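Q: Now give one record:
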Amino acid sequence: MTVPTNDASMDPTIEINGTPDDSTDTTIFTERESEVRSYSRNWPVVFDTAKGATLKTVDGEEYLDFFGGAGALNYGHNDEGMKTALLDYIARDGISHSLDKFTVAKRRFLETFTSTILEPRGLDYKVMFPGPTGTNAVESALKLARKVTGREAVLNFTNSFHGMTLGSLSVTGNSMKRAGAGVPLVHATPMPYDNYFGGVTEDFQWMERVLEDSGSGMNRPAAVIVECVQGEGGINAARAEWLQALRELCDRHDILLIVDDVQMGCGRTGEFFSFEFAGIKPDIVTLSKSIGGYGLPLALTLFRSDLDEWTPGEHNGTFRGNNLAFVTAEVALRTFWKDDALQLRTLENGRVLREKFAPLVYKYPDQLELRGRGMAFGIAFLQNPEFAEKVMQRCFDNKLLVETAGPSDEVVKFLAPLTLSDAERDRGIEICYEAVDHVLSSQYES
């Protein structure tokens, strides 16, 4: 029998010394990769290395990264502290895959997460590892809520996004993503998100009425699931008083409150959790993306201790024990959350973003709206949603990566690393400012 080898000399595209292929050719991607790919259509170059807030292509072009792995890279690319810890762990043959067995890496992560994040905030949450991605966390949160309450229905909100598996899609608002399920998505009822009616209708007026009216046809739900800032939905930020009212409504009607912090957690809005500024405590919280620190897959489902009614193995997953992510996550928590320095810097950067882009809103008052909180930042095109894509393309042409969001992709969305320098922040602002001004001024000139 011939034994397969991993000899680089047999592949003419890879040098024996391990240097990656430096070809700029994208033919293999367009011919072999599925049509489902999306981001690569906007940025048709071959990336090779990355550091901090910078991505470099195989031909040496550098791009400032305000995309941040869709929220998975709050601490930037290849942080030195995490990289060193990861390489040391691999070099000593530390366990990489363990399912839910006890490991040193998991213990250190749990101890650090408890002492650095949970205890200072007075949160007595149990920690569950549901699988490697955000949608795994959401699925487990919905299952737990239904198990604990014995009810089926879940309330979600307009323009919400919670993941791409069936349960998560059922509480997602985007019609295109929902259609991809191919089957009916049931047991979820959408409600209007904060400011959905532009302040005309009182918050929760209809929700409160149908919950109280025995003739409304609505069964009492198991849970409400909400994003404190809607990322994919268009960087819509809920007010503190709205979130407080939602917490109170859930308490009155014995409904569990789930906060989906997959994209907006780990400091994106300033505080570690996006709900902290409102002074509320959810019953269940989902975390993923940047909780791994280094961009490695990791997800957590957090919940009140008294809700821990799982039986062993009732929800599991082969890759719920990603020890490499435990290692980098522990370093990230210990490095960036030992004090409030990152939180304060994130809030200041958010203030700077609004201040710098404010003249554009003044210049085009009927066209633009600034959205978000902290370093979750968006520029919404109110009259011409297609302009957001034009801005994204012009930013790319000028070596800045940003994406679009919202039901019509009408929002230019920033998810830059929280650790970027002032110079990087200001350069990104300059590039995007010019792009927005160019696109809008071109409209008036034509």
In short: The chain is about 35% helix and 15% strand. Residues 422-445 form the longest helix (24 residues). Residues 84-336 form a domain with the Aspartate Aminotransferase; domain 2 fold (CATH 3.40.640.10). The CA atoms of residues 218 and 284 lie 23 Å apart.
